[in-house]
Amino acid sequence: MRQFIKRALQKSSKLTTEQLQELLVSASGEIERLEAVLDSLSEGIMVLDTDHTIVLANMYARRILPSGLGEQTKEPIWEIVSDAKVGAFLQETLLSGDKAEGCEFEAAPKGVQRLFSISVWPLIRERHVTGSLIHVEDITVKRSREARMRQMESLASLTTLAAGVAHEIKNPLGSISIHVQLIQKTMEANKRLYFDAHPEETMESEMGPAMYFRNFDRYLNVVNEEIERLNHIVVDFLFAVRPMTMNMHSGEINKLLSELAEFVSFELKEAGITCTLELDDTIPLIDFDERYMKQVFLNLIKNATAAMPSGGRITIKTVAAEGIVTITVKDTGLGISEENISKIFEPYFTTKDTGSGLGLTLVFKIIREHLGEISVKSKPGEGSSFIITLPIPQKERHLIGAP
């Protein structure tokens, strides 16, 4: 069709009025078809002229970048991009004439944090640069899928070890615990026999057998504490690899969060921590297992508390948009280093002196069982934000018909 229009234009002086009208109708139809193709893409396409102003932007680009794209403007693209980092990147790339591919930026075009990949290429026509082409792609789901695959691979490796751990650690621990208790009972009997024979001495005596009895009690208490800690690690491990049976019910996530905040309020107050709720009251009912979901948020609150030894603030925020509910648990704690932030959901990874390193692995698994996603944003000294997204049930799905 383009070649036909081109040849017709070369002979336009010889065409009648009717033929010219037909040519214009054909050209208009071709333009509308191309615009429909561009608007149907799930990626942003923008064409700039040599002054870096917008000549063409498809619907996706207008939606995810500033509203000014829908208006006629002679300002360069970086002047109307609302995100400062994206604007600076476009300005530097376009003015230098360089090509850029797959540069990633975080932005929140509709209040929901997304990850975008932006590419810039020169627009070549007949061996001359006539402008620039900008391609914008939402890679949030892609990156989440890649991260999820890594997490699932880690969980799969745990499954192969579960049976061995159950038999080789848990059972001997039970036997050790029983025999430690028997030793303690034997020592209690020895104490009674000794102090009955030596009434002038007490357990408070600074020298003699009383001192050894006290040391013996202290050592056995340490052994008992370590046995209990190891037992918790084994239980968490088995829970992490055992298939979960979800009892899903439609419920109010805001109500659950409010009840949890009330439940932990005394503990947080004792730690000098305030908890603020910013709940979107337009959130519809969603499907979740109340028992497991409580475990998720109690775990996150516990971690946030540990990250704020001198007190601070926890903010729990909910918002509904584009078929999902986003729940953010933010603290003002110590933060997480860049080298650790990609590891925190991995089994056994922990920065604490004590702990199994399976708490966030369990959180990750529970959220995945709810068909949701969890991610984290953090910087050392600036606190951490855990972002959970859960799907809003869709009763009916309709295709958008043509007008």
TrEMBL record:
Residues 164-394 form the Histidine kinase domain. The keyword Nucleotide-binding applies. Keywords: ATP-binding, Kinase, Nucleotide-binding, Phosphoprotein, Transferase, Two-component regulatory system. It holds the Pfam family HATPase_c. Its EC number is 2.7.13.3. GO terms for molecular function: ATP binding; phosphorelay sensor kinase activity. It catalyses: ATP + protein L-histidine = ADP + protein N-phospho-L-histidine. Gene3D superfamilies: 1.10.287.130, Histidine kinase-like ATPase, C-terminal domain (3.30.565.10), PAS domain (3.30.450.20). InterPro entries: HATPase_C_sf, HATPase_dom, His_kinase_dom, HisK_dim/P_dom, HisK_dim/P_sf, PAS-like_dom_sf, Sig_transdc_His_kin-like_C. It comes from the Bacteria. This is histidine kinase. It comes from Leadbettera azotonutricia (strain ATCC BAA-888 / DSM 13862 / ZAS-9). The lineage of its organism: Bacteria, Pseudomonadati, Spirochaetota, Spirochaetia, Spirochaetales.
